[in-house]
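Sequence in, structure out. Go.
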Amino acid sequence: RDAGTFLAENGKILVVFNRHLPYLGWLRKRFARVDVLDDETAYLVVCAAGPR
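Output:
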């Protein structure tokens, strides 16, 4: 929940998580920019920036 509060204004966070977990939607609600860097069968690698 608090990941965005620790980032610098131009900071980014890289997250790797199992595909079946609901983190992508959670990140999209809390960050202005969310890019999927790798989309595998079992997991996603995501870069998020611009905490809201």
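Check: Residues 3-51 form one domain. The mean pLDDT is 90.
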